[in-house]
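Tutorial sheet, problem 5. The three components below are modelled jointly, 801 residues in total.
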Amino acid sequence: MSSYLPVLVLFVLAVAFGLLSLLVSITLSPKARSQAKEAPYECGIVPGREAPERFPVKFFLVAMIFIVFDIEIIFFFPWAVVFRELGGYGLAVIGIFAALVFESFVYLIGNGALEWGPRQRQRRAEIVSPDRTLTSTIRRVGAEGRPAALEPAALAPAAHHAPGHGDHGHGDHGAAA
Amino acid sequence: MAVNYVVFFICALICLLGATGVVFSRNPVHAALSLVATLFGIAVLFVQQSAHFLAAVQVIVYTGAIVVLILFVMMLLGVDQEEDIDEEPLLGVRAAGTIVATILLLGLLAVFFLQSNRSTLVTGERSVTAPLSVDASLDSTKGVAETAGPDNMATLGRLLFTRYVFAFEVTAALLTIAVVGAVVLARRPDRLQPVPDEPESMDDDFMAALESEAGH
Amino acid sequence: MTSALLLAADPLYAQGVDLTALLITILKVVVAFAFLLVATMLMVWFERKLVSDMQNRIGPNRAGPWGILQTLADGTKLFFKEHINPIRAERRVYVLAPFLSFVPAFLLFCIVPVSGNWANGGDGTVELFGRTTYLQLADPPVGILFALAMSSIAVYGVMLAGWSSGSKYPLLGSVRASAQMVSYEAAMGLSVMAVVLVTGTVSTHGMVASQAGDGLFHVLPNWAVFTTLLVPFVIFVIAGTAELNRPPFDLVEAEQELVAGFNTEYSSIRFALFFLAEFMNTVTMSGIFVTLFLGGPSGPAPIGPAWLWGCIWFFLKTSAFLFMFVWFRATLPRFRYDQLMDLGWKLLIPLSLGWLLMLAAVQLSGQQNWNPVAVGAGVILMFLIGWSLLRSANAKARAVHLGEEVNA
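Model answer (C-alpha cells):
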C-alpha cells in the first residue's frame, strides 16, 4: 500500500492547487452578471431549440463493445505476465478466448453497430428534377434588384431553368459553364 | 496498525455515502457519480487487501466502462432529468428491496460476529485474498513467498489459466451473449420513422423556395 | 534483467514508511509537480511557436525572450476573468468536471520514470539523502494499468463538463469525445499488452529495466519498439493521439461544428484547468510513449553522473514526441467521425489483437523450439481468417445500412 503514498500526496497537492487557483480567481475576477452572458453560448444567436435529449443508439453500442474489449484486455494482462510459464497451453486458452470475443465483435460489425458513414439518400434522387444542374441549383443571396449585366452567370446559358430571373448560377459555375 | 484503520474508515465512509447517494439522488447523473465514488472506495479497500490487480480492474472496468455505459444510456434516452422518487414505479419494489437489504445486512453481521478475530477481518491485516496466493504456486520447487510476492498479477494469471480456466472461457461466452442482447435491444423497428433534424428538411425548404421563385 | 525485475517496488518503502521516507516522497512530489507545470507551460509556447514557424508566421514574441513567457501571461490573464455560471448548468457537476479532468492528468505522471542510473547495467536506483529510491514518483504493483485507470477516469471530466453545461454544442462535443476516448482506449490497452508480453512485467520501472540492455546484434538498443516489431508502437501513437483529442483527432473541439466542444461554457480559471489538463496530458503521454517503447531514461552515460544522463535522454526522447504532436497538428487535416470510428474499431483493434497473439506465438516458438514454418503458417492463417471475417461483416453492414435508406 505504501507504494501509493506518492500518488496520494500528488493527489492532495493537485486538488489543493486547483482549489487555490479557483479561490484566487473568484476573488480577483470581476462580477458583472447578465442574462445574455449566462445564456447557453450559440455564437451570438439566441438559443432556440433545446439541447438534444436523445442520441443515436450507436453510442450505446460503442460503449457496450468497449466493455467487452475492456474485460478482454483485463484478462490478457495476467496472461501476458505469465505466458512463458504457461507455454502452448496458455496460448491455446487465450486464443480460444480471443476468438470468442472476436466473433462477437464481428457479429456487432455485421449488424451495423459501427456504421457511422454518411447515408446515401435515395429520396433525394426522386426530388431532383433531371434538368437540375450545378449552374441552376446554387442559391444566390442578395441577388434581387441587381442588374443582371453585372452577373457573370448571366452570360451562361440559362436554358436549364427558364423562369429564374438571374437568381441562379454563381460566378464560379457560370465561368465553368 | 493505525494507518489501516484510518484508511479503512475513510474508504468505508466514502463507500457508504456514495451508496446512499445512489439511492437518494433525484438526478440520475448524480446517482451515477455517487456510484463512481462507491466503486472508487472499494478499489482503495482492495489495495488495502493487497489485491492490486482487482483494484485496477475495479477502476478500469467498473468506473471506466460500465458507469460510462450507464451515463451513455441516460443521455441516449434523455432520462437525465430530475426524478420524483416519492412515487413507486413498480408495485412492491420497495418492500422487496427492504427485505433483500435486511437479509444482506444480517448476513454481513453474522459473518462479522461469527469471526473469532474481528479486528483483523475489518482492517485487512488478515487478507481475504491471501488464501488465493498461498496455493497458487504451479512450480512446487518455489516457495510461497516467491510466488505470492507483491506481483500478484502473476499469481492470478497462474490460477486463472489453470484451475479456473473453464470459468474463464465461459466469461467469453457470457460477453458474446451480452453483445447479442445489446444488438437485439438496439435494433431499429421495422417501420422506419423519419429522423428529425436531418439535413433533408433543408433540402425541402430549398426546393420549396425554388418553386415559389419559379412561380412569379 | 531478472535481478532488476525482482525489485518489484520502490526500495524507498521497503522498510515501511518512516519520516525520512515521507519527506523524500514529499520532496519528489513537489519537484515533479513544479516540473509538470513548467513543462506544460513550455509545451504551450513550444506548440504555438513551432506551428507558427511551420505556417511561416512569427508567433508569440512579446512576453519574455522569444515570447517564452506568453503562457504565463495568458494564464495570469485568466485569473482576472469573470466566472460565468451558465443559467442552464447543473451547478455541482459543472464545478466538479474540471477537477475530474486535471487531477488524473497530474496523477498519470506518477508512473513515468524520469531518470535513474541505467547506464552500464545499473538498476535505475539513485541515492537520495542516504536512501535508495527510483527517480519516478510511484511504481505501484499494477504499473501501466494505473495509466489505463487514470485515462478512464479522465473520460468523466470531458463527459460531465459537456453534460452539465446545459448547452447543445458542449453536449454534442462531450458525447463525441467520450465515445472517441473509450474507442481508442481499447486499442491502447492491446498495444500496451504487447510491451508487457516482451518485457514480462507491468511495472514501468521493470519495463525500462528490461529495455536498458543491448538488443539485436549489440547495435540496436533493446527497446520495445524493436522487440514488438514496430506495429504496437504505431498503434499506440495513433491511439494516444486520439486519446488526447489532439489533431488530427480533435473532433471534440471541431470549431466549425461545435464552437469549442465540451468546454464551450467554461470561462476563467475553470477553462484554464481544462487547458492545463490537455497540455499536461500531452507531455505525460509523450513520457509514456518513451517509457513503453523507447527505453525510458535509459541510455549511455559517457561522462558525469548517470542520473543526469538519464534526465537528458528522457528529455530528448520526450521532446521528439512533443515535436511529433505539433507536427501532426500543423500537417494533418481533421478526421471525419466515421473515419475515426472505422480506423479505431475496424483497423487498430483487430490488428493489435492479432499482432499480440502473433508476438506470443513467436516468443513461445523460440523458447519451446516449435517448427517455425508451422508457426508462420498458423499466424498467416489467423490473419487471413480474421481479415476475411471482418471484411464480409463490414460488407454486409454496409449493404444493410444503404438498403434501409432505400426503403425509407
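Marking note: Residues 120-125, 158-177 of chain A have pLDDT under 50 and may be disordered. Full credit if you identified this.
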